[in-house]
Fold:
Amino acid sequence: MLKLDHIALGANDLEKSCEALSQQLGVLPFGGGEHELFGTHNKLWRIETADYPVYLELIAANPKAEPKRARWFGLEKSFLSEDIQLLGFIASTQSIDGLVQKPPFDLLDVIDVTRGVLNWRFGITKDGALLDDGALPYLIEWQGGRHPLDGVAPQHIELKSMAGKALDGLDLNWPCMLARGGGQALSVELIAANGETLRFKRA
Structure:
């Protein structure tokens, strides 16, 4: 069974959007870095759920880097708005090679990715586009027993709910409520460290 690993938000300018998102969440990111293969960079926040922690990723094209393949998460194109965008979510597995052999993940190629001490195998579309426009997750299989949340203390952000047309059909151990009547597009509700509810919806 799949597990929710992290939720991805996108932006045109990482530093400006990180400042804005930190204010909304009420806490600074615990980490982040660069992805040389894709020419992107990110910031990360820990999120608590009813069952296990996940993390929130804010990711953007790195203007100082040249990608070696199509940028992931559809970041080949800039966003029309400077607002932070909900991109999609990533599900973790221990059997990525088997999952990409059959629908709905048979459009994904498995590649090896490294960032610092972290190593993972990633299921991604050939052109870097989101799978079913973000309704379905990318896949990740962490390698070497390391994960971005290792040693990270709770940041008092909570995942309240998710909604979307494809969520019910996934064999995924959901650690949050799947909201009903939320429409077809993926949406996420978070409770910030200050108690405010934040809502992100796939445009």
Q: What stands out?
A: The radius of gyration is 16 Å.
